[in-house]
């Protein structure tokens, strides 16, 4: 094509038409579809404004008066005529058709206007199709880029060669650099967040897991972004690991001004509101459930020793032996201790999910129940939102009864929740996809496993392997199984990435 030639794309059939610059703006017929077009260069620009006209109309009124209507487009003019408002008694003017002179309207003016409007309509459809194709192409290119980035960052490092490949692809696909950076940031942050979520899934954060998370963040040149809730979950999971890896006799002693028994050590101290749970015939104070109410002893310090839980405040003191506490439940608003003798207790936090209070709760569970703990954030409160205050007459006999549980549970909470690893090996993913919520599972010890003598395999009810418990978890859970402690397991949930989470119950 020479410098004196131009290209026009037919608005009706997309055929490229070559024309001389001297013919620009003239009418022509498309050699393929025979449609009338105006020769204007439209390969890279929008010519619709050059094809459109602006009109004014004088509509006569009584006597010598008239109303001037406008400006209006070709389409508006045609619509006005179709509705009967544009008649031979009207005058019209347009820069393109009447040289901005008022002329009496006649229907001969409509033919070229209709032709022009038809071309504009066809050109609009052509441009819309181009925009739609471009949007689809951009979407496909973004998805291809996203998949490549996901693969490139999966090892926690984005090499210079991988960066170069991303830049070259973006250049060829004509993707703006800001779009590329947005996709890269989203995928990197998503990968690091998924690593954190995986590590928190079982409520235990090992040093190896934390090291891997930090390594990925450094290697991918991103900062770990955490909500305050996730920061607390990491802190609790980190503490749960330390507690589980520490023998009970190894817990350090802290200084506290309190009278102790022989060989008794203070292990932790936490400010709480000490409450006893009492049964009352007439309501008073904070209702918990049924006839159970909280009786506040006061706010002070609860001290966990190697033998007892002690409470000391300005006005009251209390104590509870380790052996009297059968079960501990952690709520967002405090710690519930179910006792075999004496009143059950509730250590109320000053605020919900108080970090120090939740750490104290983990230590209580680890030492008093003598089982591994998991650092999950509680989501429910023991104290209902509504409270009732009224005069009460207490029954000494009913107060002395042992309260086994504040909330009778039809569906018991699992003792542990574990994530299954190795689910991608062999046909395990296939069998995981066939599982249903609450479906029974088997936990099978493999002491002769050459990779890990603590290995615990997870199988479905037909004996098909679904994977194993994480090595850090199996390190302590296998010991519980080997000591003859009975456990049952079922499906808690299956994540969107086909990762299996199991609920484990004590028999």
Automatic annotation (TrEMBL):
Answer yes or no on keyword Hydrolase.
yes
For this UniProt entry, the molecular function terms from Gene Ontology, in alphabetical order, are: hydrolase activity, acting on acid anhydrides, in phosphorus-containing anhydrides; nucleic acid binding; zinc ion binding
Q: Does the keyword Hydrolase apply?
A: yes
Write out the entry's keywords from A to Z: Hydrolase, Metal-binding
Query: Residue ranges of the HIRAN domain?
Result: 415-505
Q: Where is the signal peptide?
A: none
| Domain of life of the native organism | Bacteria
- Matching InterPro entries: HIRAN
Query: What protein does this entry describe?
Result: HIRAN domain protein
Lineage at the top is: Bacteria, Pseudomonadati, Planctomycetota, Planctomycetia, Pirellulales
């Amino acid at each position: 094509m020479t410098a004196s030639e131009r290209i026009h794309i037919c608005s009706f059939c997309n055929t490229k038409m070559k024309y001389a610059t001297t013919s620009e703006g003239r009418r022509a017929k498309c050699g393929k579809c025979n449609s009338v077009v105006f020769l204007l260069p439209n390969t890279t620009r929008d010519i619709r404004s050059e094809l459109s006209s602006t009109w004014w109309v004088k509509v006569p009124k009584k006597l010598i008066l008239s109303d001037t209507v406008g400006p209006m487009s070709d389409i508006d003019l045609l619509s006005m005529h179709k509705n009967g408002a544009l008649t031979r008694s009207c005058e019209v003017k347009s820069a393109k058709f009447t040289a901005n002179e008022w002329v009496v309207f006649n229907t001969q003016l409509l033919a070229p206007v209709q032709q022009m409007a038809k071309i504009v309509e066809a050109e609009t459809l052509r441009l819309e199709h181009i925009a739609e194709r471009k949007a689809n192409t951009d979407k496909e290119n973004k998805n291809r880029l996203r998949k490549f980035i996901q693969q490139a960052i999966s090892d926690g490092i984005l090499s210079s060669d991988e960066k170069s490949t991303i830049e070259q692809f973006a250049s060829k696909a004509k993707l703006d650099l800001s779009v590329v950076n947005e996709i890269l940031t989203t995928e990197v942050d998503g990968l690091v967040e998924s690593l954190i979520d995986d590590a928190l899934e079982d409520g235990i954060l090992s040093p190896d897991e934390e090291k891997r998370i930090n390594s990925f963040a450094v290697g991918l040149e991103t900062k770990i972004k955490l909500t305050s809730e996730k920061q607390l979950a990491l802190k609790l999971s980190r503490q749960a690991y330390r507690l589980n890896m520490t023998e009970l006799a190894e817990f350090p002693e802290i200084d506290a001004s309190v009278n102790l028994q022989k060989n008794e050590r203070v292990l932790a101290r936490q400010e709480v509101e000490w409450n006893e749970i009492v049964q009352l015939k007439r309501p008073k104070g904070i209702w918990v459930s049924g006839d159970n109410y909280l009786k506040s002893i006061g706010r002070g310090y609860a001290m966990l020793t190697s033998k007892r839980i002690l409470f000391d405040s300005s006005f009251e003191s209390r104590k509870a032996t380790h052996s009297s506490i059968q079960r501990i439940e952690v709520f967002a608003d405090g710690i519930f201790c179910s006792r075999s003798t004496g009143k059950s207790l509730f250590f109320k936090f000053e605020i919900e999910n108080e970090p120090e209070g939740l750490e104290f709760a983990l230590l209580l569970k680890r030492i008093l129940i003598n089982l591994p703990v998991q650092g999950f954030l509680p989501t429910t409160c023991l104290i209902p939102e509504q409270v009732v205050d009224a005069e009460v007459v207490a029954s000494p006999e009913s107060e002395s009864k042992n309260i086994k549980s504040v909330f009778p549970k039809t569906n018991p909470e699992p003792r542990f929740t574990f994530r299954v690893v190795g689910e991608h090996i062999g046909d395990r993913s296939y069998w995981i996809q066939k599982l249903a919520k609450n479906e029974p599972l088997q936990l099978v010890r493999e002491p002769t496993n050459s990779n890990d003598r603590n290995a615990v395999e997870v199988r479905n009810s037909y004996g098909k392997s679904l994977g194993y418990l994480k090595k850090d978890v199996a390190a302590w859970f296998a010991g519980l199984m080997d000591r003859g402690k009975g456990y049952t397991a079922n499906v808690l949930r299956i994540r969107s990435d086909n990762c299996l989470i199991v609920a484990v119950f004590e028999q």
